[in-house]
Specification:
Serine Threonine Protein Phosphatase 5, Tetratricopeptide repeat; five-stranded mixed beta sheet; Glutaredoxin; single chain; alpha/beta; 301 residues
Length: 301
């Protein structure tokens, strides 16, 4: 049996105790009155359990004792699983003050496990910053549902948080639900419509709508630009399509080239599109900073 979490001889990766029906009351019910306990229901034959358990051990090991973990083999102790309504595994329950307060079933991403553990340990109540950071990481990793849940959690306590409004809108943008994205942005308070998060999300939505018209024409647009480098309309559309395909640096270069060739074309259309990129990417994005340097070198050289 491995040492119980908190044992100074135990490392974070091994601080997990095996619990059975006889020890459940002491090791979970009573123990959770002192520190939150995560109960991992598993079985040796369960493949998904082998994926989830190491993630749980890692994240809980990093909690510095704020949360502890035990494992229950349902083949050996089916009674506890039955009492908690466990119908499939892996199943995870968080206990606090002697009762289950949260849980989930199935394998979930590490970012969501981390949020579950932080919330159980009380660390997420320190402020919205940690939740928003975790949500942004999840969204960047393509975990749209998980990110959305975290943004909604922040909004449930502060409906005026423009970071959460913008983030939730970007979740809808990522799944191409543009109407929902706009509806979410419309929730922004009138006195915060010019906040950078809101204007950036608006720009991202504008870009996503534009990309819907040209994304499927990436190769034809590339051919048009190659055939006629002065075809600025095709080059701008090509840049929009490249950005939609996550080829942001190439998109930047296309617009810079258009500006270099003729920065006055259509009242500076390429420059305006580039500024929209910067706003959508975020002014602090390294590529935005690099693009501004390139733009300045053309306009002010």
């Amino acid at each position: 049996m491995t040492p119980f979490p908190g044992d100074p001889s135990a490392s974070p990766s091994t601080a997990v105790k095996d619990v059975n029906t006889e020890t459940f009351a002491a090791d979970v019910i009573e123990a959770s009155k002192k520190v939150p306990i995560v109960v991992d229901f598993w079985a040796p034959w369960c493949g998904p359990c082998k994926q989830l358990t190491p993630i749980l051990e890692k994240v809980i090991g990093e909690s510095a004792g704020r949360v502890q973990m035990v494992k229950i083999n349902i083949d050996e102790s089916p009674q506890i699983a039955g009492q908690l309504g466990v119908k499939s595994i892996p199943a995870v329950f968080g206990f606090s003050d002697g009762r289950p307060v949260d849980g989930f079933m199935g394998v979930i991403p590490e970012s969501q496990v981390r949020h579950f553990v932080e919330k159980l340990g009380g660390t997420s109540s320190a402020g919205a910053d940690e939740i928003l950071a975790a949500a942004a990481t999840a969204l960047e990793a393509g975990e749209t549902k998980e990110a959305g849940q975290m943004y909604r959690e922040v909004l449930s306590t502060d409906p005026r948080d423009t970071r959460a409004i913008a983030g939730l809108s970007r979740c809808s943008i990522s799944v191409k639900d543009f109407d929902a994205a706009q509806e979410i942005l419309d929730l922004a308070p009138e006195d915060k419509l010019t906040d950078s998060e809101i204007t950036s999300a608006h720009a991202a939505l504008q870009l996503a709508r534009s990309a819907g018209n040209v994304a499927s024409e990436l190769i034809p647009l590339q051919a048009q630009v190659a055939a006629d480098p002065s075809n600025h309309r095709a080059r701008i559309d090509y840049a929009i399509a490249l950005n939609a395909a996550s080829q942001r640096e190439d998109a930047l270069d296309q617009l810079i080239e258009s500006i270099r060739l003729n920065h006055d074309w259509e009242d500076g259309a390429a420059r305006q599109q580039l500024l929209t990129f910067f706003e959508a990417w975020g002014l602090s994005d390294p590529l935005s900073a690099n693009g501004r340097r390139k733009l300045s070198s053309i306009l002010f050289s």
